[in-house]
Amino acid sequence: MMSDAGIAILAVVLLLFLIALRTPIFVALAVSGIAGLIGLQGLQGVELVPLSLVAQLQNYALVAAPLYILLGEVLAVSGLGRDLFAAAHRWFNRIPGGLGASAIGSSTVFGAMSGVSISSVAVIGRMAVPEMLSRGYRPAFASGTVTASGALAMLIPPSLMFILYSSVTGVSIAELFAGGLVPGLLLAAAMILYVVLRAKSAPANAPVVQETFTWGERLKALGKISPALLLILLVLGSIYTGFATPTEAAAVGALAAFGVTGGIYKKLGWKNLRLIFVSTATVTASVLAIVGSAFVFTQMLVAARIPDAVTGFVVGLDISPYLVIAAIMLVLVLLGCLVDAASLLLVVTPILVPAIEELGFDPLWFGVLLVINLEMAVITPPVGLNLYTMKSVVPELDLADIFRGILPYLAIEAAMLALVTAVPEIATWLPGLIL
Question: Pfam families of this UniProt entry (predicted)?
Answer without folding.
Answer: DctM (PF06808)
